[in-house]
Specification:
heterodimer; A: about 240 residues; alpha/beta; Rossmann fold; six-stranded mixed β-sheet; four-stranded antiparallel β-sheet; B: about 230 residues; mainly alpha; 8 helices
């Protein structure tokens, strides 16, 4: 088991964002979490990636207690969130070299060249990232998340702000990493993309995570219908 | 070995960012020169004939310039970490927070030392205190400024780390930092006055205060910074 989180609870003030959330991720599995804006998806990703501490609960990553020793497990994680998690004053090449050095990546130069080529940023490798569009930054973030070849990937709304070609690129990359045995947790509010990317589906609504089905057990139409019905129930509350 | 490697890359990145954007560079140099100029104009053109009075004036000007430039530098140094979530990106690499702290102390110490290397002779010349300086006194002055700046950075980086995660970080930094940094500035200024007026350090109280305060803050922050950065 790559990741096992049990009874994760998080509160901001009096508001409960996550309430007794359980989630597991196996190697070669893409867990697609669907939820509307404000459902707590980003908070969950930040907790699972050890950037935020939960109020209570347990988090095991590759068998290690990630809450007691986050530093020991972070090298295994690749994270894509809304922020670039990098220095916009530097170029993609400089950022990847800096983070690659911190991760102590072997054959770093070759890895940077290959990743920049894969994400289509070779032409912009030595341009400052301040001038980058949202799509370009998203491509960079995928390269950065993969620089150290992590075993577990967290992708928070990886399709937001992307054009059709870029969305397809992200989907292809998710399938590629899954085929290599990586575990992936992705959040999205777009049912179709979540379905195309995922192998297992969960809904995050009312601070609770509800397991729905595996991909071989449910069609896209049925998943969309269930999600829409759950959303309506949530809005009526 | 891994820690040295990580600290080295973190420092290299900080210095690259500082010289890349240049706005902080210009700001702290202009600010420091302005402080020197204002004092020179206010007390000049005929400066006190008494060596002690001139020494006190020069020490006050130097430490006022370095303290304010240092606060600006500390603010900017954490601004870039905050701006695009870069600090979280660094945390995700598994870097030990103590190494991150040391790297910030080293990079801020280096940048303030560059500022001091330029501003100190300018200030002493403007305030007509340069002619009293011997090579021995100059070496001691460099030592006092280095220890003082290290203490300033040891305290300042910790407080910047605390204020980084809060709203209104810039004003909060100044409010919390100034009382905590006061012993460093006071001891540094007293040592500098002593050097510029007598050529030596009279007694050991102020230099001991400077060393001990800086060392205690450096050691305690190194051990406790995890709770500041991780929360």
């Amino acid at each position: 088991m790559l990741l096992q989180a049990t009874k994760i609870t998080k509160r901001f003030g009096h508001r409960t964002i996550l309430d007794d959330v359980d989630i597991e991720v196996q190697p070669g599995e893409v867990v697609s979490i669907l939820g509307p804006n404000g459902a707590g998806k980003t908070t969950l990703i930040r907790i699972l990636s050890t950037l935020l501490k939960p109020a209570s609960g347990n988090l095991q990553i590759a068998g290690a207690n990630a809450l007691d020793n986050p530093f020991g497990v972070r090298q295994m994680l690749g994270v894509v969130v809304h922020e670039p998690l990098a220095y916009l004053e530097l170029t993609p090449y400089e950022n990847l070299r800096f983070f690659g050095k911190l991760y102590a990546v072997d054959s770093l130069e070759g890895r940077i060249t290959a990743l920049l080529d894969e994400v289509g940023l070779t032409r912009f490798a030595h341009e400052r990232m301040e001038i980058f569009s949202r799509g370009m930054i998203q491509r960079f973030m995928i390269a950065k998340a993969l620089i150290h070849d992590p075993t577990l990937l967290f992708l928070d709304e990886p399709f937001s702000g992307l054009d059709v070609a870029a969305k397809q690129f992200v989907l292809d990359r998710i399938h590629h990493e899954r085929a290599r045995g990586k575990g992936i947790v992705l959040t999205t509010h777009e049912t179709q993309l979540g379905y195309l990317a995922g192998t297992r589906f969960l809904f995050l609504l009312d601070a609770r995570l509800k397991s729905i089905a595996r991909k071989d057990e449910i069609a896209l139409d049925e998943l969309s219908l269930q999600y829409d019905m759950s959303l309506k129930q949530h809005q009526m509350k | 070995m891994k820690s040295f490697h990580q600290i080295g890359w973190l420092v290299r990145k900080d210095i690259a960012l500082f010289f890349r954007t240049k706005d902080t560079l210009v700001l702290i140099f202009v600010f420091s020169v302005l402080v020197v100029l204002i004092f020179s104009l206010a007390f000049g053109p005929i400066f006190p004939q008494d060596v002690e009075d001139r020494g006190k004036l020069a020490a006050s000007v130097l430490w006022a310039a370095f303290a304010f430039a240092g606060i600006i530098l500390l603010n900017r140094s954490f601004d870039v970490e905050r701006a695009s979530g870069a600090l979280q990106g660094v945390r995700l690499t598994g870097v030990d927070p103590s190494n991150l702290y040391l790297s910030k102390v080293v990079s801020n110490l280096f940048l303030l030392a560059v500022l001091e290397a330029v501003i100190t002779p300018v200030a002493l010349q403007f305030l007509e205190a340069l002619d009293t300086l011997t090579l021995g006194t100059l070496m001691k002055l460099i030592g006092v400024l280095t220890i003082g700046t290290l203490g300033f950075c040891a305290v300042g980086v910790t407080i910047s780390g605390i204020s980084t995660s809060t709203h209104g970080a810039e004003s909060l930094l100044s409010v919390i930092l100034l009382p905590l940094i006061f012993p460093v500035i006071m001891a540094g200024a007293k040592c500098t006055v002593s050097l510029l007026t007598t050529g030596g350090l009279e007694g050991h109280f102020w230099i001991s205060t400077l060393v001990i305060y800086g060392a205690v803050f450096l050691a305690s922050s190194y051990l406790l910074i995890e709770f500041v950065i991780e929360e």
